């Protein structure tokens, strides 16, 4: 027999003996690898927590947008039906006046501050 065949036969005999001798260590390493993968893997515990936090953040954003949507819907209904609100917007934003009224504009730089502590 050649030297290669002898080495190959020795390895075949040594491998089962090695596995039998170190089976507990190999099992412990395998379990450790599984635990590490379950914690830090792509679908592990940490990734799951990150995904749950993202879901919660998106749900809060959806709730905020829904409440803003409801508020804007109420404003639209008010703009369609409330003549006083329409008049207020026309006076403030479009600077319209009733016949006989005069609009006096104060430059931004000269307007008093909106500070609550400054009272006349």
Task: Summarize the structure in short.
Helix content is 70%, strand content 0%.
Record the SSE blueprint:
Layout (H helix, E strand, L loop, with lengths): L2 H19 L1 H18 L4 H37 L1 H10 L28
Features:
120 residues, mainly alpha, 4 helices
Structure description:
There is one protein chain. By secondary structure, the protein is mainly alpha-helical. Among the domains are: 29 residues; 52 residues. Helices cover 70% and strands 0% of the residues. It is built from four helices and no strands. 0% of the residues are buried. The mean pLDDT is 83.
Order of helices and strands: HHHH
State the distance separating the first and last CA atoms.
Answer: 113 Å
Q: In what range is the share of β-strand residues?
A: under 5%
Helix tally equals 4
The level of helicity is over 70%
Which stretches of 5+ consecutive residues score pLDDT under 50?
A: none
Q: Which structural class do you get from the secondary structure elements?
A: mainly alpha
Q: What do the pLDDT scores average to?
A: 83
Task: Let me know the largest β-sheet.
Answer: none
Radius of gyration: 39 Å
The number of distinct β-strands equals: 0
Shape: rod-shaped
